[in-house]
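Practice record 12: protein with MD3.
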Amino acid sequence: MTTLDLFQSPTSDQRESIGPCAFVLRGFALPYVDDLIPALADIEACSPFRNMVTPGGFTMSVALTNCGPLGWTTDRHGYRYTALDPDSGKPWPAMPDVFAALAREAAAAAGFRDFDPDACLVNRYLPGSRLSLHQDRNERDLDAPIVSVSLGMPATFLFGGDARSDRADRVPLHHGDVAVWGGEDRLRYHGVMPLKDAPHSLLGSQRINFTFRRAS
Ligand code: MD3
Ligand code: FE
């Protein structure tokens, strides 16, 4: 052991800092992928992906669904978390154990202990889909981190500042990468550049993103 090791946490070698409280864990989800894909198929069968409408009247190019006790939705009336899928009228599908375990392990690896998500937003990007710069501020507990898992085609993530007009860093996210954000980075503007078509061996021409939050 060198002297330098004393100043590093045990996980510091596998986490890449992109902000004071924002980290990318490259390939962290890879050992989970074989369990995540069939679990996603079950979620989709109950609550299919759909393109929701924003309060401003725009149909999102990203299609979404949810699992867990609460799900994020938008319509002409606003953004909110609901216990029921507005399309089916039934509760969102339960959060699979493998999802919750991955989210908890990734949060811990980034230094956030005891993360207990009650919402998992699942985004599906097709070629050309994009997410414009926004803040995530519909969650009651802004102290809890957010954990994001990328699968399938790569994307360029935009990581801005506390104002929409702040310059945004570009962070490439690949299949299996996990990002964790909290603390002072929790309310930074962020988005995703239009997806290029570069079919992935497992998922074809799509990118799937799981975003775990503590909503209530
Ligand atoms: C940084 N999704 O669903 S996840 C979203 O890749 C969303 O689908 C993107 O933004 C996606 O709201 C990015 C990474 C992410 C999520 C929330 C954040 C980064 C964040 C909140 C604050 C700062
Ligand atoms: Fe977001």
